[in-house]
Design a protein that fits this description.
By secondary structure, the chain is an alpha/beta fold. It has helices at residues 5-14, 19-31, 35-48, 53-65, 69-82, 87-100, 103-116, 121-129, 138-161, 168-174, 188-205, 235-246, 265-273, 285-294, 309-315, 402-415, 426-443, 447-450, 459-468, 482-489, 506-513, 524-535, 538-551, 553-556, 561-572, and strands spanning 222-228, 252-258, 277-279, 299-302, 323-325, 340-344, 359-363, 390-393, 418-422, 451-454, 471-473, 494-497, 520-521. It is globular and about 65 Å long.
């Protein structure tokens, strides 16, 4: 019988020279998502058996999960040096490079791993479906979408031709089209086909989760389940934790499945308020699905689908008579088994129904009760350059598409502003700089005079910098969400370019709710003109700050949201409706 992690830890402590025990401990902690412990155990194994390729592999994988990509790369290169034919090590090295943003190196690695293990469909899918996390230019986006479309059809054909492949579920967890939705492209059709792929896998390997479920006809409280990959200090919990905490428990019986392996004060708050909270971060997707199905829910609400590979598989299953998804990741799931997409009316365009495979439900306002940020700290760490305007773009660099670069350079050239971006990964910052420098050259301006890329700071210090800035530039195509809440809560003017789909209209929806529509640009030229004009007009910026601060409660305390959500849930979960 395999030892538990605790037993292995005791064994390692008693017999530190036992490399085998250290390897077992590293594996056990990796499987249970205790990545820091896995690193420590792998290092212990290496100390006593430095020639162990598996020890270096485990060190690399655990480091990758901790986002220590350079350390992961070094460990995995050593593993490959010791075991050149290890497809697993080559694949893991490619994944570390992919997650760091080195798409070209990653693509070479996935292809090499496929050659080493031609019968491993998971590696074949990675080779076919991997797409850039960061775009070098617009042409790369077009090529990536085309390649993904072709690869997706290959993956579906492979899944259909190998219905009994025992690693299909694991492979499906590896692959998600998350970054594809950041491209300035229409991706609904690809999302639908990706949903087809996941449903094919579910139907072949877990058919018990494909069949329809009869509605409970029992009277009394309706049993509502909530599934989330990130019920911790995270954007998804910031938006939707209040749904769980404020749901009327005299009418509804909430149950929660928290998939996060990291638990914190937010997790504890949910656990204290809802007795039936299942913290399942260390379980595999089949066990999680069985737990949900065994609860005999009347309706299931996924708070996010797409950021964690397990959530995509769960969305491809039928686990409750009625299944919904919120916009924790604001794109369609692509699944025919999710019945409703719960969105906010303020953010959706008139033609939004066509953007979802689910039936769109427009809840009032933002459709959520996002939590306020903490008080802003001291922002003086971000020094001004004399009396030049100070602008920020607070988005993760992977959300900033190449089409944005020319707009930023035009704004800098005409306003003489300093524009600041935030990034902790030096390699990603270097790629972004190299791309933006091309637009600077086209405008005849010097990158170092007008742009800075700085590491992220503690939350309060970051908020202090936002409060001190003259204005903030929103990302285009995929707008800010949580970051826009931060900016607007401080009254800092936020310039946005409204997109065609909800993911590009979040900031615009907030501004309309606050009655400050003049910060919404209709096109790229208007975006530039608006930013340049505001940079030169202190009185106008001050007036906008006053107006934004006066109405900010509308974003965080919309009294319409919970009654609308509860009315919807009561209707769709009613026994007579689904009899």
């Amino acid at each position: 019988m395999p030892l538990s992690s605790d037993a292995l830890q005791r064994t390692l402590g008693v017999s530190p020279e036992s490399a085998d025990a250290a390897l077992d401990l590293a594996r056990a902690n990796l499987n249970s998502m205790h990545y820091g412990r896995s690193v420590a155990a792998a290092l212990a194994a290496i100390k006593f058996r430095p020639e162990s390729a598996e020890a270096w592999l485990l060190l690399g994988v655990a480091s990758r999960y901790l986002k220590a990509y350079d350390k992961a790369e070094a460990a995995l290169l050593h593993a490959i040096e010791l075991a050149p034919a290890s497809a697993e090590a080559v694949k893991e090295l490619a994944m570390a490079r992919y997650e760091r943003g080195d798409h070209e190196l990653a693509a070479v690695g996935f292809h090499r791993a496929k050659i080493l293990a031609p019968l491993d469909l998971g590696i074949a899918w990675l080779d076919a479906l991997a797409h850039p996390k960061f775009l070098a230019d617009s042409a790369q986006a077009d090529a990536a979408v085309s390649r993904f479309e072709h690869g997706l059809e290959q993956a579906i054909a492979l899944a259909e031709a190998n219905p009994h492949w025992d690693k299909a579920l694991q492979a499906a967890v590896w692959i998600k089209p998350f970054h594809l939705h950041y491209y300035a492209r229409d991706t609904e059709r690809l999302s639908f086909r990706f949903g087809d792929l996941l449903e094919t896998i579910v139907d072949s390997h877990t058919a018990q989760f494909s069949a329809p479920i009869a509605t409970r006809q029992a009277a009394g409280r309706r049993r509502i389940g909530f599934v989330c990959s990130a019920l911790r200090t995270h954007t998804v919990a910031r938006y939707f934790a209040e749904w769980l905490l404020r749901l009327d428990q005299s009418r509804f019986e909430p149950q929660v499945w928290n998939l996060s392996a990291t638990l914190d004060a937010v997790s504890a708050e949910i656990r204290a308020a809802i007795t039936a909270t299942h913290e399942v971060g260390n379980l595999d997707v089949v066990d999680i699905a069985q737990s949900i199905r065994d609860a005999q829910l009347d309706a299931l609400v996924h708070l996010d689908v797409g950021m964690d590979g397990r959530t995509g598989l769960l969305a491809a299953m039928r686990l409750a008579p009625v299944q919904c998804v919120a916009y924790g990741h604001p794109v369609t799931t692509g699944s025919t088994r999710i019945d409703y997409f719960l969105s906010g009316d303020a953010m959706e365009p008139a033609d939004a129904d066509a953007h979802y495979r689910e039936r769109l439900v427009r809840l009032p306002g933002l459709g959520a009760l996002p939590r306020r940020p903490p008080a802003a700290g001291d922002g003086s760490w971000l020094a001004r350059d004399g009396d030049r305007p100070l602008m920020l773009c607070v988005q993760n660099l992977i959300k900033i598409v190449p089409e944005f670069d020319a707009l930023a350079a035009r704004i800098a050239a005409r306003s003489n502003a300093t524009i600041v971006f935030f990034e902790n990964q030096p390699a990603m910052a270097a790629r972004f700089r190299a791309r933006l420098e091309k637009s600077c050259a086209a405008q005849g301006i010097d990158f170092d005079r007008h742009f800075r890329i700085v590491p992220r700071r503690a939350y309060a210090e970051y908020l202090g910098a936002v409060a001190a800035a003259d204005l903030v530039l929103d990302s285009i195509h995929f707008s800010g969400g949580s970051t826009s809440l931060d900016v607007l809560s401080l009254g800092t003017p936020l310039v946005t370019l409204e997109g065609k789909r909800m993911r590009g209209r979040q900031t615009a929806g907030m501004l309309r709710m606050l009655g400050v529509e003049e910060l919404i640009a209709a096109d790229a030229d208007a975006y530039v003109e608006l930013a340049v004009g505001l940079a030169a007009d202190r009185a106008r910026r001050d007036d906008l700050r006053r107006r934004l601060l006066a109405k900010q409660d509308l974003l965080f305390s919309d009294a319409r949201v919970m009654p609308a959500l509860e009315a919807f849930l009561a209707d769709v979960a009613a026994p007579q409706r689904n009899a």
